[in-house]
Amino acid sequence: MANIDHNNKEKNTKNKQTDVSKNTEKKKRENIAFDKFEVDISSSNEKKKEDKTPKKKNPFKRVIEYLIPQKGDTKGDIARKILLLVAICVLIGTLTFLIRQLVSMDQSAKGSNKLAEEAGVPNSSINYNEPDRLTHPSPNIRTTAGTEEPEFIDLTPVVNTPLDVNFDYLRSQNPHTRGWIKITGTLLNHVILQNPDDDDFYLNHDFNGNYQEVSAEITSSWRNKWDGTDDNIILFGHNMKSGYGFAYVNHYVPNDVSGEPLAFYKVHPTIMLQRDGGPSETYKVFAGIVVNTQEEYGEVFNYTTKTKFTSQEDFNDYIISIMDRSWFYTDVDLEYGDKLLTLSTCYWPLGRSKETRFAVIARKVRPGESEYVDTSVAQRNWGAKLWENYYDILKTKWYGSNWDTSKLKGYDG
Prior knowledge:
Layout: H1 2-36, H2 59-67, H3 75-118, H4 132-135, H5 167-173, E1 177-182, E2 189-193, E3 218-220, E4 232-236, H6 263-267, E5 270-275, E6 280-292, H7 312-325, E7 328-329, E8 340-346, E9 356-364, E10 379-380, H8 388-394
Parallel strand pairs: 2-3, 4-8
Antiparallel strand pairs: 1-2, 1-5, 3-4, 5-6, 6-9, 7-10, 8-9
């Protein structure tokens, strides 16, 4: 038995040595195989094969590298990045400006409606859309009227209701209150303010004196006295896309692609005004003029300083200057002693780089005179007096007065 056990032990020992030898030989062969592919098998169980795919850069870092000049950039890359940065800054500035304007206009609209209610002359409910001819004005005033398909236009004139403004309340809120202006059937229904220390103050401040990017307030020339002695009350207001301010003043600009170029005038031939302490007054519109304000482009017709007339000749000369420039003629007559009303706002037929204005001029209804105006005889004036730069664009010139001078009483022209 001892010999058998001994033999078995020797046999098992040989078998184990054989197995170890085989395993060792196998590992050698594996090592040789892996070595051929340069693989480190010593760490094959601890590390995964290295991922050679490039890691993605942080998105923010990528944007910075795309926009900001970096070390190693070519001159072309640097120039491109600088131009792109400038364009982005301009875009941000423009958007900021537009947003501020929109917010300001919304605040002005709400303020105007509230003030009108508190003054006892509430606004009508009107959804305003700026006419395309005012959004995209054209320098060509010599187009042919009636190029659109025939259309029905209601030309029934509005009926005015006398103003009865609570000036005691308005004056208690703002001592700069001077009057109230209204064009029936529009959003132009607003207080008139006058800051004796700053003529432009209310162009960017509201009724309460708070700064606004664009204000809907209507302001009077500092030259006006507002004591009943003014021969010509001159008012200024922004042409606002919201319809407030003096947006409707530009609606008197003839619509030359319509079968009724003077449709707005024919429906709204009068403007209402009430002075603080005075009665409700009605003014008949008789002219609408486009004027240049920059000498570099030609004649500057200064219509914003004439609040008093020293004589009949002085009055006649002014009316002649107005009628020569008017874009339409009406049935309204004029005579020395008439009280005038001028509404002025921005209008850009030559583009916004050229500061031009549109002004509507009206005269007060005389004592005992009817408010009625025969609008059927109103005519478009295709030869209004302009200025040098405008004539260069139209490739024409002014051919002289062509209005009915008999409408100016006391003038023998």
